[in-house]
Amino acid sequence: MMNPQNVIFLVSRMPIGGSETFLINILKMIGREKITPIIISLGSESDPMYGRIPEGTLKYVFPRKWRFDFSPCYSIKKVIDEYQVNTVVAVDYFTHIFLQITRWKWKANFRSITLMHSTKPRYLKEYLQGLVFARLLSKDDEVITTCLNQKEYLRKLFFIPKSRLKKVIYNGIDTNFWTLPDRNFNKFEQRKKLGIPGNAIVIINVAGFRKEKRHDVIIKGFAKFQKMIGDKPAFLLLVGGGDSQIESEMKQLAKSCSIADKVIFMGVQDDLKSLYWLSDIFTLGSSSETFSIAALEALSTGLPSVLTNVGGASEMISEGLNGYLAEPGSSDSLASAWLKCTDLLPKISHERIREIVVSRFDIRECVHNYEEYILNLKSSE
């Protein structure tokens, strides 16, 4: 049997987020008899997700003094040499820049793979970084995207040659954990704890308070949805942390829309599964999304979902079967999609919704694809 291959995963930092959760899941399940992962963070040991790196994983922190402080490149080169690393995976296109500098300045020789977990740039600086990244790509650099829509969008946005975009590997989740409600789960008792009537329509959103998550569109849409359904009770659960200023603004917006008593701000929650089980519809209002881990989790629990049509949403939603798509930025479109989803609820097959995720987006298949790609070297689509 061959010795496992040492592979570096380079991250800029490790806040709470979908791509960070995805990386942790990969590290938990990757075959250690095949690959020995080494984590290098350019952030801090106090980053929330850094402490969740699985035990036994080699990990290093080389903090920067400022965003474009490239002094950690020397330390990266030392780790490459110490562990005789042949493959380095940049977990976003920003960290790829550090790999290029390491390669050029110290004549380091390694295979470079970049994972793309973002799609639409949130601001001009991100767009410019993307342009720099695309221009730095050599003919030997490889880029993995998480869905077909993202691949095409980034190719056009940053003028990336098709030959650099080597493969699409869909995100995956642990479908053995994200399951349909078990027999002992009492939906109505759990709702009662939150002050929610058993016959209410419960819509859940799981997203950090960031501008691109567009909680304002969700709250305005929910106010319109309330008018559409008349006297039928409905509640909106907003789960997640993030920017406290944005969260405060959203609470004020809920008050101004006269729905503050129907919108529950729940903060960060450890037991998301139970919240999915007590809900009726999962939703996202994002203006920018790649391939949402939270949406996959909800769908795997049998929850129909309404997503804005950005990133890979159309690759996970089959309208009328497991949910609907809404126009990004439109509270009217979101409210209408929720109404259609509500009409769908009595005849929906939660088993069928779950089966789509199990068959296409299970973490074991995802990890297998990454292992195969890393170990079997450069295969293009």
Strand content: 15-25%
String of helices and strands? EHEEHEHEHEHEHEHEHEHEHEHEHHH
Arithmetic mean of pLDDT: 93
So, the CATH homologous superfamily of the largest domain? Glycogen Phosphorylase B
Largest sheet: 7 strands, parallel
> Architecture of the largest domain, CATH level 2?
3-Layer(aba) Sandwich
What would you say this structure looks like, in words?
The protein has 14 helices and 13 strands. α4 links the parallel β5 and β6. The strands form two sheets. A seven-stranded parallel β-sheet has the order 3-2-1-4-5-6-7. The chain is 40% helix and 17% strand. The chain is an alpha/beta fold. 41% of the residues are buried. The protein folds into two domains: 5-172 and 362-375, Glycogen Phosphorylase B (Rossmann fold, 3-Layer(aba) Sandwich); 187-360, Glycogen Phosphorylase B (Rossmann fold, 3-Layer(aba) Sandwich). α2 packs across α3 (93-105). It has helices at 18-29, 72-82, 93-105, 124-136, 148-158, 187-193, 215-229, 244-256, 272-278, 293-300, 313-316, 331-344, 350-360, 363-375, and strands at residues 5-11, 35-41, 58-61, 87-90, 111-116, 142-145, 165-168, 201-206, 234-239, 263-267, 281-283, 305-308, 323-326.
